[in-house]
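Example 3.2
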Amino acid sequence: MDVIGAGFGRTGTLSLKIALEMLGRGPCMHMLPLLDDPERATLFARAAEGDLSSLDKALEGHRSTVDWPGTYFWRELTEKHPDAKVVLTVRDPQKWYDSAHSTIFQAARSAPREGDDSVTAGLAMVRSLIWEGTFGGRFADREHAVRVFTEHNEAVRREVPADRLLEFEVAQGWQPLCDFLGVPVPDAPFPRANDSATFQARIRERQSAGKL
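Structure, written as tokens:
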């Protein structure tokens, strides 16, 4: 593992995934593909229950990870891969909550609890790791969710050595990320992906295809 993303979803993690792969640090694990990968989703769920050998299997073949579920295991991953760099994607906590509430939370509330096993395994993992495991079933409580977000970021800053950690806003573009990784800046724009409108359009597509 070369890069461990420790930032919560809706902090620019899909843009970072694409950027890391452009910089040769891929494949990069991200939540989105897991919704269609029941085997890996089940492995992450088992890891959350304490079977950390499942975490290794879930991340097999990946050089980096961003977003959930990887960020749920940031402590385990940073300990297991001591030479890996850690990137904490950040944004204003209130704007983060607004974005997360209008996208991933609304999608989760409308998702069926039963159906095609290839779909429900991913959705069950999302409920277990994010809505229950991270937010204790209280994401709808704005004050609580923002506090969890803030305390998570503070823990990463406190526990990861400064020379191993990059606190990164995707609006900063290539330079800080490339400086941190010691690679040249690509001759291409920094990727911009998965804003709220794009996310909602993707959810509508999945719903019409019976995948949510």
